[in-house]
Amino acid sequence: MRVLVCTVVHDPQDARIRFRQIEALLAAGHEVTYAAPFTAYGRTAPDGVRAVDLARATGRHRLRAVLAARRTLAGLAGSHDVVLLHDPELLLAVMRSATLRRTVVVWDVHEDTAAAVGMRAWVPRLLRRIARAGVRVLETWAEKHVRLLLAEHAYAERFARPHPVVPNSVVVPDHVTTTAQRDESGRLRLVYLGRVTYARGARVLLDLAPLLPRDVVLEVIGPADDDLRAALETARDDGALLWRGFVPNDEALHRLDGALAGLSLLRAEPNYAHSRPTKLMEYMAHGVAVISTPNPASRELVERTQAGVLVPFDDASAVADAVRRLVEDDELRAQMATSGRAAALTELDWAADGRRFVATLEGWAARS
Question: Which of 15, 191, 249, 339 has its Cβ near the most Cβ atoms within 10 Å?
Fold first, then answer.
């Protein structure tokens, strides 16, 4: 099977796309062409795939990237069995296109797209209702003309017919430590993994650093939005926290091992209500206790698996209290880490979901 994977929005190093789906396809012996904004993000193409560099869609500057992707898809679709789209914008690139007649087109639905519009600072507030209505129209069109693959069971409520769900689960390593280990300076590490944005709790991270016990350091692993970089650089230079910036996926995940706890501090946004944060599952998979805000999907996962502590939204003091509790009660922290790890092994492992993902695309290609 030949699969064309396409994004103009996501970082080419996106974990779901690059390190889970593409790796699963390659492991199953399929050929992959990866069309993504490599140059715009400063990334190199992964081994084993044919890479096509695309323009990046960002802010209000999206039309050029979509039109360029439309030309790319028109030229390459005919030589592939499946075209896998990762951005709702790319649905515009295949509308009234021969691409739809030449191959199986799949939209991988990553998020509650209509709810996500309300979080986009570049969308004027007065136009957000219109934009959400436009997204609903686009989703209706997509359900009639392309195949849908859902990353969460809750996304099914937005569509009239059932569609396959391949959860955004994680690669669970074979061996981890559930012991909190001190670094060379004798400090315990509190980790945050992922892009740093206001919606994902950046303000709390910055306020939290000076509230932590002296023997705990906050380590932030991931790139930041432009409007946050200066504040993070200042906090790093002042010694308030460690900010690593972008770190390759395998190295970033390795840095979770031995951490005191992992932070997931999403704000109370509709787009986060039904999506389990990938970082939560990655902490659990690596045997790290979690501290999370109580978005419905996060609350359900943390409470059911007993993998960590829930804290109120936008409350750095509450997070600091939770950290002190885990420092003082290592037995409790270890129980949470062990419980989270056990849940990851039984229900959050991409090894099983990856096989289901590949089989779904194979089935669609065979029936086309």
Answer: 191
| Whole-number Å distance between alpha carbons of 204 and 208 | 6
- Phi and psi at residue 242, in whole multiples of 5°? -105, 120
CB 37 within 8 A of CB 54: yes
**Is residue 193 within 8 Å of 222, Cβ to Cβ?**
yes
Model pLDDT for residues 111-158, shown as the tens digit of each residue: 766 555 555 555 556 656 666 676 788 888 999 999 999 998 888 888
Q: Helix 278-285 to helix 330-347 angle, to the nearest 10 degrees?
A: 110
Residue ranges in the chain whose pLDDT is less than 50: none
pLDDT given at position 157: 86
The pair of structure tokens assigned to 106 is 């799949």
In this prediction, residue 117 carries a pLDDT of: 54
The answer to whether the CB of 319 falls within 8 A of the CB of 366 is no
Q: Give the chain's end-to-end CA distance (angstroms, integer).
A: 12
Coil/strand/helix, residue 256:
coil
- Closest of 197, 191, 262 to residue 232, by C-alpha: 197
Write down the residue that tokens 């194979």 correspond to: 362
pLDDT digits (tens, 9 = 90+) for 314-326: 999 999 999 999 9
Task: Pick the closest to residue 259 from 224, 296, 310, 221 (CA basis).
Answer: 221
* CA-based nearest residue to 111, from 68, 50, 63, 154: 154
Q: Is-contact 174 287, C-beta < 8 A? A: no
Q: What share of the chain is helix, strand, coil (3-state, %, to 5)?
A: 45, 15, 35
What are the backbone angles phi and psi of residue 261, rounded to the nearest 5°? -165, 160
List all residues 6 or more positions away from 16 whose beta carbon is below 8 Å from its beta carbon: 108, 110, 151, 168, 278
How far apart CA 117 and CA 132 sit, in angstroms, is 6
Task: Measure the CA–CA gap between 111 and 360, rounded to whole angstroms.
Answer: 20
What pTM does this model have?
0.88
Q: For residue 227, how far is the Cα from the chain centroid?
A: 20
Confirm if 222 and 195 have CB atoms less than 8 A apart: yes
Other Cβ atoms closer than 10 A to 250: 9
